[in-house]
Design a protein that fits this description.
Blueprint lengths: L1 E5 L3 H10 L4 E3 L2 H7 L3 H10 L5 E4 L5 H14 L3 E6 L2 H12 L4 E6 L2 H9 L4 E4 L1 H6 L4 H15 L4 E4 L5 H9 L4 E4 L1 H7 L3 H14 L17
Parallel strand pairs: 1-2, 1-8, 2-3, 3-4, 4-5, 5-6, 6-7, 7-8
Helix pairs in contact: 4-5, 6-8
Bound molecules: erythose-4-phosphate.
């Protein structure tokens, strides 16, 4: 499963990118607004880090504006996936962008039927927002299980990008259900590597290591002159 960060913070992205566990980044207008910087500058900087997949969202709601914004965003960098909302206009725009070779991440997906349509118009990613479903008393993970079954039934190659993740158990469940990608906030990704028993075990090993007799370190030879 690919792991994406759901953020527009270049600093957070750089930190995970340097560790080597990051496969991509998703942004949205709310995340970009938090940074207080020009949208295109942020997107360009993220792409320049070398992250292979960067989702940037259109804000137009009619087909011509979505197409104009989508084409513009796609030109910024080859890593761009244009994020388009799941509306009738978004479906139409996705079909056209796809025919021009522009990859689309269809966002704001809350039902299996919406996801079926996203696959039919050729979206590269579909983004079901599981946390927002949980927030209102529905089981978001049920949607992932339905999508996996539907996409497998018909061999759709649209990737299921599990979005609106709130905690590590969401990541675990998404992985068990066969989600292709999980996108999450920095804090959640950080927690994936943590366990109190790891910290305790490491502290104990280091303490015991102090009791092991140490041989004197070999002197470092001086550099030879030619
Ligand atoms: C996905 O691409 C969205 O940016 C995101 O996951 C939304 O998450 P939220 O419900 O925490 O805002």
């Amino acid at each position: 499963m690919k792991l994406f960060l759901d953020t527009a913070s270049v600093d957070e992205i750089r930190r995970m990118w340097e560790i080597g566990i990051l496969d991509g980044v998703t942004t949205n207008p709310s995340l970009v607004a938090k940074e207080g910087r020009l949208f295109e500058d942020v997107i360009r900087e993220i792409c320049d880090l070398g992250v292979p997949s960067v989702s940037a969202e259109v804000v137009g709601t009619d087909v011509p504006t979505m197409l104009e914004e989508g084409r513009h965003l796609a030109k910024i960098h080859p890593a761009i996936y244009v994020k388009v909302p799941m509306t009738p206009a978004g479906l139409r725009a996705t079909k056209t962008l796809r025919s021009e070779g522009i990859r689309v991440n269809m966002t704001l997906v809350f039902s299996a039927n919406q996801a079926l349509l996203a696959a039919k118009v050729g979206a590269s990613y579909v983004s079901p927002f599981i946390g927002r479903l949980d927030d209102q008393g529905q089981d978001g993970m049920e949607l992932i299980s339905d999508l996996r079954q539907i996409y497998d039934n018909y061999d759709f190659d649209t990737e299921i990008l599990v979005a609106s993740i709130r905690h590590p158990v969401h990541v675990l469940e998404a992985a068990k259900l066969g989600g292709d990608i999980a996108t999450m906030p920095f804090g959640v990704m950080e927690k994936l590597a943590q366990h109190p028993l790891t910290d305790l075990g490491l502290a104990r090993f280091l303490k015991d290591w102090e009791k092991v007799p140490k041989a004197p370190r070999a002197a470092i030879p001086a550099p030879r002159r030619s």
